[in-house]
Design brief:
With 295 residues, this protein is α+β, with helices and mostly antiparallel strands. The protein has 7 helices and 12 strands. Among the domains are: 41 residues, no CATH class; 120 residues, no CATH class. Strand 3 and strand 4 form a beta hairpin.
């Protein structure tokens, strides 16, 4: 398994053993949605059919937050509420008012919830106790916040701070596109997004396009700044760096996988390879962005 998106945090005060972490997460496992609840959140095993809430390999650990949501489309609620409103109109001789329509909709929702289908989803986080990294595999800031909030409810005395560098990604990416040298371990690929800093914030995006053209240089000259840039690290991993320090569309390139006889071995091999490479990529990226702020 490989993380496709990186929401990166710095850890402080992480003195929890694997055994203690597993014990504390096990107190808050994912439970099935109650009949009248739309969502349930809790910890699940990172591995399939495994009872442990922590997958640990040396200094690296993997944990997973599970969510169970009920599928109750608004169109289904509205259709049934419309039918109920029509029945009530026929009974009382006039159309239901706004307050009554709201009550009808609420009653319909309560009636449908126990029969709604449910879907489950896992969000993973990688913990590097030596490097001090806590990385969540999501591109959704709200999901990352939900993960961190649930973690703080489950364990004590841990601080997570979003990664911040002395040079912002926007400034660095704009400089690389306008001719500044990018560190040798990185190469600029063929995708970027540029945005004007005026009130209109007009945006131009390039995909599968040479980024050393005069056309892009002209955009920078008139004040547009890079908000996304596709980059490859050491010919091993490609990703898109975003202005908010997220790495998205992370993909290994020409990675040789170790042979595995079981799904469990394959999982461990992938985790070892992914964490080993990312643990080297992140310091290189920080160096390229002028070092870590307040390091």
């Amino acid at each position: 398994m490989w993380f496709k998106n990186l929401q990166i945090y710095r850890m402080k005060g992480w003195n929890i053993t694997t055994e203690a972490l597993n014990e504390q997460l096990s107190i808050h496992p994912l439970q099935p949605c109650l009949s009248m609840a739309m969502q349930s959140i809790g910890w699940v095993s990172p591995k399939e059919e495994n009872e442990s809430f922590v997958a640990a390999l040396g200094q690296h650990s993997l944990i997973a937050l599970g969510t169970e949501k009920k599928l109750l489309p608004a169109s289904v609620i509205n259709q049934l509420a419309k039918e109920r409103a029509l029945e009530i109109e026929q009974q009382q001789g006039y159309k239901p008012g706004r307050k009554q329509l709201k009550e009808i909709k609420e009653d319909v929702t309560v009636e449908l919830l126990p029969r709604a289908f449910t879907v489950r989803h896992k969000t993973y986080a990688w913990i590097d106790t030596v490097g001090g990294w806590f990385v969540i595999d999501t591109s959704n800031i709200n999901k990352a916040d939900e993960f961190v909030e649930t973690l703080f409810k489950s364990i004590d005395d841990v601080t997570l701070k979003p990664l911040s560098t002395n040079i912002s990604p926007t400034v660095a990416m704009t400089g690389w596109l306008s001719g500044s040298d990018i560190p040798a371990v990185f190469t600029v690929d063929r995708h970027c997004e540029l945005r004007a800093m005026d009130d209109e914030q007009s945006t131009v995006s390039y995909t599968r396009h040479a980024l050393d053209s005069e056309e892009i240089a002209q955009h920078v000259k008139v004040g547009k700044e890079a908000t996304k840039l596709a980059i490859t690290w050491r010919d091993k991993i490609s990703f898109v760096l975003h202005e908010n320090m997220q790495l998205r569309r992370v993909a290994p390139l020409d990675v040789l996988k170790e042979p595995a006889e079981t799904a469990d071995e394959l999982f461990d091999n992938d985790l070892t390879m992914m964490t080993g490479e990312l643990a080297q990529l992140l310091p290189d990226l920080i160096d390229a962005l002028g070092g870590e702020e307040n390091a």
